[in-house]
């Protein structure tokens, strides 16, 4: 089972994660969420570094999370549905001091839209309309 998402730049076929019974051929929405977090944190970090006058010769952002497929499959009522325990790791090659790096990470966290959205979830609503 898949759906197609028009991103405005390309069409993405999203599918179910293999742990939940998918074939792995489509993009997993959980992976896409982590990719959005990494992308946002990466560009934010670069913008903050530029603003601070720091040179990052190389930088890597990694995000991972725990996922218990039993929740989304409905086979364990006590298992959460969704990603849990999101973790981000930054690695970079820079001559910046430890204090400057701490400030860089603090400001990256502060100004990263996806990070802030996940850290402080917005009020959500669901509605229906007929085609």
UniProtKB/TrEMBL annotation:
Organism of this sequence = Sphaerotilus montanus
Q: Which PANTHER family does the protein's record reference?
A: HYDROPEROXIDE REDUCTASE
Which InterPro entries did the record assign?
KH_dom-like_a/b, OsmC/Ohr_fam, OsmC/Ohr_hydroprdx_reductase, OsmC/Ohrsf
The organism's place on the tree of life at top rank: Bacteria
- State the name under which the record lists this protein: Putative OsmC-like protein
The protein's matches in Pfam families, at most eight in alphabetical order, are given as: OsmC (PF02566)
């Amino acid at each position: 089972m898949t759906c197609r998402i028009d991103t405005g730049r390309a069409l993405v076929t999203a599918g179910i994660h293999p742990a939940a019974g998918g074939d792995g051929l489509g993009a997993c929405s959980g992976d896409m969420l982590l990719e959005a977090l990494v992308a946002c944190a990466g560009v934010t970090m670069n913008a903050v570094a530029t603003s601070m006058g720091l040179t990052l010769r190389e930088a890597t952002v990694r995000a991972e999370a725990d996922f218990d497929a039993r929740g989304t499959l409905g086979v364990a009522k006590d298992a959460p549905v969704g990603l849990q325990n999101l973790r981000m790791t930054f690695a970079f090659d820079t001559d910046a001091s430890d204090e400057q790096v701490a400030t860089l990470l603090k400001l990256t966290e502060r100004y990263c839209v996806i990070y802030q959205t996940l850290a402080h979830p917005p009020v959500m609503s669901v509605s229906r309309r007929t085609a």
